[in-house]
Design goal:
Elements: H1 5-16, E1 21-23, E2 30-34, H2 38-48, E3 57-59, E4 70-71, H3 75-84, E5 89-95, H4 101-104, E6 109-113, H5 118-126, E7 131-132, H6 147-154, E8 160-161, E9 174-179, E10 182-187, H7 193-200, E11 204-205, H8 208-211, E12 229-232, H9 235-241, E13 247-251, E14 263-266, H10 273-288, E15 294-298, H11 305-316
Parallel strand pairs: 1-8, 3-6, 5-9, 10-11, 12-15, 13-14, 13-15
Antiparallel strand pairs: 1-2, 2-7, 3-7, 4-5, 5-6, 9-10
The structure holds threonylcarbamoyladenylate (TXA) and magnesium ion.
Length: 318
Amino acid sequence: MNTNKVELSKGIEILNSDGIIAIPTETVYGLAGNAFSEVAVSKIFALKKRPHNNPLIVHIGSIIDLDNVALEIPKKAYALMEAFWPGPLTLVLKKHPNIPHIVTAGNETVAVRMPNHAVALEVLNQLDFPLAAPSANRFGGISPTSAAHVANSFGFDAPFILDGGECERGLESTIVGFDGEEPILYRYGSVSAEDIEKICGKLKVHNNEEVAPQASGMLSKHYAPKTKTFLTDKLTELAISFKGKKIGLLLFSKKMDHINCEHQEVLSDQGDLAEAAKNLYAAMHRLDSLGLDFILAEEFPNVGMGKTINDRLQRASK
Ligand code: TXA
Ligand code: MG
């Protein structure tokens, strides 16, 4: 933990006066403010330049706080909380009247999760309110997995940042909602769909078109570098066809020595998908800062976290 007591108190003071700060979580950094305060939440939307039809996730520090955030919780939701909280699973539940409509973009549902990060939990447990927090980057960009990413994304407008080091998981939470007791996957994330299905049975997956207005995570163009990006299962051919251009490669476990390209990011030498997930956004940030003509990403094995990685790469390449 890089955060000291003085910084922690300063962050808490800002939050207690309707201000916003960046906090570390195990997934990505969040831009946090009092979820019960319209004033604080408006500041989040303004700084992030996020459209108001895009709802935020509410973060709680203890299960007791859930009663002030959501109502009529399905049995399967409790089973999922038991299995994955604190952790990278967000549940979409019926909203409590305490939660202002600005948080939920007018929806009667609220997205809620308990993050698994010592700093985030410490902050939450010192406050009398939950924190609304989207990822701490400008809307549509690559999510931040370090304090430096947050600072770079906002430049002179950067908020006060609690530095909690590099995010352990590196990809956003998985979002699950319910139609009665039937679980619905709204966004692939840091808990694999397979692991969720072990607890609550088959997930119905919502596609982009169905949820685009609700879930920005499902917007087709999202998590995007500024550099034009391609996702391909024929990387060698594509790289050859870009001869003479400045390209960067985003690779799973092996460099491509036969391709003449100095900017090659290998996400996991061990071929470990969780490690690759952790490293993905930092590699995208690095490649994006090089002034390349194109980024070429290879398709990942489409299982477990590989599905989430492919999902983010598809959106980055739209
Ligand atoms: O890992 C994470 O979830 C991070 C950290 C900071 O917790 N947060 C994050 O927030 O990724 P954001 O705002 O970048 O993404 C929130 C997603 C969006 O896709 C939003 O549309 C969806 O949650 N969402 C929020 N409320 C919803 C609701 N009521 N129904 C469906 N989707 C909802
Ligand atoms: Mg985001």
